[in-house]
Amino acid sequence: MNKIIVAIALTACAFLKADVYASGSNITMKGSTTVFPISQKTSETFMQKNPDINISVQGGGSSVGIASIIDGTADIGQSSRPIKTGEIEKAVARSIEPVVHVIAMDGIAVITNASNAINDITTDQIKDIYTGKLSNWQSVGVAGGKIIVVSRDSSSGTYEAFSSKVLAGARTRPDSLLQASNQAVMQTVSTTPGAIGYVGLGYISDKVKALKVNGVECSKKNVLTEKYPISRPLFMYTNGKPKGPVKEYIDFVLSDEGQSIIEGLGFVRLDK
Amino acid sequence: MKFRQLKEGIYKTVFAALAYASLLFLVGITVVLFKEGLPVFRHVSAVDFVFGKYWYPTYEPPDFGILPLILASVWVTVGALFICVPLGIGSALYIYELATPAQKSALKPAIELLAGIPSIVYGFFGMTIVAPFLQNVFNLPVGLCAFTGSLVLGIMATPTVCSIAEDALNYVPRSFREASFALGANRWQTLIRVIIPAAGSGISTAVILGISRAAGETMTVLMVTGGAAVIPMTFFQPVRPMTSTIAAEMGEAVIGSGHYHALFAIGIILFLMTLVFNTAAEIISRRFRIRLGLGR
């Protein structure tokens, strides 16, 4: 569901882009759809405060975000993963200097149905469950029959992070239920007794059980310190140290107000 | 006099432009669809695309096999037919033949209102109420499956089938009915032997449009079928129809990537399927019309 909204928003943005103001400054942002809501919301508030600055935000994925910095097609590239060596080489070849700004933290909580007796799981067990090696709760040490594996769609940023952090690139079992949004994963896991799934930290509720992973609870504090094994920072990239309106905007994102907006969206704010 | 001619000329041009606009849109959509979809064959052969068993579009190297997605669409659509055809045609016959005027004036708008409910509402209903219910009743491991999809889609397609079938029954000339009664046939014989065959073209169009509705539905199947890209073996298994795959993955597929082209290529397959359905509807309705001598 969320994706549809994002897709519509993206299309809308594509049209709005044509609407370039003659005066004032323009900032263009592209990239990760995980970061997209942050960029969208913070830039809205920022533009209200600075009516002469116009920010256009587009999605496209983390790779698009980083590529747009290297190509010079955007001022800020949103990314939910660090820049790769190959990308740095490409940037250097064009004498571009990508500068990273960590803007928030994101944790992925592993959840099961509330009726499940399990409280604790290891990353190895999660990997075996998602790749199909373990298919019964018995082998994880609790009752509950067949494990129903719930995952996000292969193009979701959360899926990508989960897949690289836990599955190390292995394929999820083909019969896993691929859901289109965090909300749909929540709904499925909360109504299916044998289910296991994962959602962004902001989506945990008492309808499901969030498991400790390798003995660490999925809490904001543990995500912030990266003690929790499935956590990741979210980035904005710029070419060189930001100047002028881009600097003003990034400072706003990192300010107390910007961070509160980020927290309101379900991500983990960077604490001083 | 001259002014009137001018006015008519303007009307004619405006309406002609509107009529041709739809043709233009169709051509535009087709061109874009093929332009964006065909490059997928740089990554995968046509045979591996249509008959491949694995859909892993974002892995390295990716697998673009859409056989599970095609079969999921077929299963869910066929399941929906078993629900919307009897329900839709049955209710059309009831409204046409048996209902009192008062019932008629309540039933028809009620059924047509069902068609106006947004599909996301059906999806939400299916996801939060129907799926957990079926899970309990049939003791399934998971409620989001092809069966739930068929059930909800069948209910969604019923108004289409019912409304068009009922219109078709109403178009049968009164004289057919009167002639049948005059020959001594009773009401039942008249209905089965005369009215239904005479309305046959309209009824088959109703069924085919019902199929199109079910096969092309996106939001609901995305929400209720579970989304597992495996070849379905039973109705109580999660499946991933083509439409829901496009809807779920379009937003994040990197533009210009193999994944992006693959999603458009799925669109081509859907487009061809719709083309076949609509052509079939046209051929059938024409054939019936000629046989009955009702040619226009």
Give a quick set of tags describing it.
heterodimer; A: 272 residues; alpha/beta; nine-stranded mixed sheet; 10 helices; B: 296 residues; mainly alpha; two-stranded antiparallel sheet; 12 helices
Strand and helix map with partners:
The complex is a heterodimer of chains A (272) and B (296).
Chain A (H helix, E strand, L loop, with lengths): L1 H15 L8 E7 L4 H14 L3 E8 L1 H10 L4 E4 L5 H9 L4 E16 L6 E2 L1 H9 L16 E5 L4 H11 L9 E3 L2 H10 L3 E6 L7 E3 L1 E2 L6 H5 L6 E9 L4 H11 L1 H9 L8
Parallel strand pairs in A: 1-2, 1-3, 5-10, 6-7, 6-8
Antiparallel strand pairs in A: 3-11, 4-8, 4-9, 4-11
Chain B lengths: L1 H36 L8 H6 L3 E2 L6 E2 L2 H32 L2 H16 L2 H19 L8 H26 L2 H9 L4 H12 L1 H17 L2 H6 L17 H9 L7 H34 L5
> What is the string of helix and strand elements of chain A?
HEHEHEHEEHEHEHEEEHEHH
Q: Distance N terminus to C terminus of chain B?
A: 34 Å
Alpha-beta content class of chain A: alpha/beta
Please list the strands of the largest sheet of chain B in the order they lie side by side: 1-2
Q: How many β-strand stretches of chain B?
A: 2
Low-confidence stretches of chain B: none
Structural class computed from helices and strand pairing of chain B:
mainly alpha
Question: Given the structure, what is the number of helices of chain B?
Answer: 12
* Assembly state: heterodimer
Query: What's the average pLDDT of chain B?
Result: 89
* Global shape of chain A: elongated
> Could you give the order of the helices and strands of chain B?
HHEEHHHHHHHHHH
Radius of gyration of chain A: 20 Å
Largest sheet of chain B: 2 strands, antiparallel
Low-confidence stretches of chain A: 13-23
